[in-house]
Amino acid sequence: MNKTLIATLTAIVLVLTFAVTLVPQEKQATAQETTPFPSREKIISVTGTATTSVEPDLLRVQFGVETQEKTAKEALEANSSQMTAIVDAIKKIGITEDDLSTSSLNIYPVYDSYQDKLTGRYTQELIGYRVSNILMVETGQLSLAADIIDSAVAAGANRVDSVYFTLSPEKQLEINDSLIAQAVLNAKSKAEKALAPLDHKIIGVKAVSLSEFGMSPPIPYYDAMASYNEGASFKASTPVFSSDQEVSTTANVIFVIGSN
Predict the structure, then answer these.
(1) CATH pick for 39-57+167-260 out of 3.30.460.30, 3.90.190.20, 3.30.110.170, 3.30.70.260
(2) Of 152, 114, 111, 117, which Cα lies nearest the Cα of 133?
(3) What is the pLDDT of residues 72-121, one digit of tens each?
(4) pLDDT tens digits, residue range 119-147?
(5) CATH fold of 58-166, please?
């Protein structure tokens, strides 16, 4: 084979190799040039609220007994005796074992401080033990609020910590579920009003998040012991009043918007 033919064949191979190498690169460059950029969504985020007032269906009364004796055993025995009498008394008005629970039981030492006349130092002397036993009554019989306090105090309770009306978990869930649709519609209405002067409209929904909370107005504190004369029976029933509970649900909705 002569040198001219070899040179010609070599030139042909180099041209073909160069062409094969260039084709994918050209296709790749073309694909990059024709791929459009992703569109940017226009959105508006709005929070809607729905609120309603509901009659409470649960009563919680917290009261108890504090006793003090020279020894912890004596203080606990005295406290237990008084608490047993209290439980028996409130059971007579319709409270059951299922309505009762111990909120707290504490035993702690009691000290008396005095100054030593010789050294001038202050010293603490153990003078006894105090037992505090707090009971919680939780019942759906709301009309028994005054009777529970009266019966407990008459039987020996010397603490009434709280009396309040609230919603049971079941009713709270039911009310919250019923407010979700209203909260979402409220968010939609706000968004539409905000978009109207901007010549835009809602064209979709991107996300929805919910938040639930209840607002229970506090009941005025009433000192149950004020109705009683020491060593005498009470003259009038303890006044306790219930009030409606305000329940609210909020919905944060992100709407996708577009031009009219």
Answers:
(1) 3.30.110.170
(2) 152
(3) 999 999 999 999 999 999 999 999 999 999 999 999 999 998 887 778 78
(4) 878 888 899 999 999 999 999 999 999 99
(5) Alpha-Beta Plaits (3.30.70)
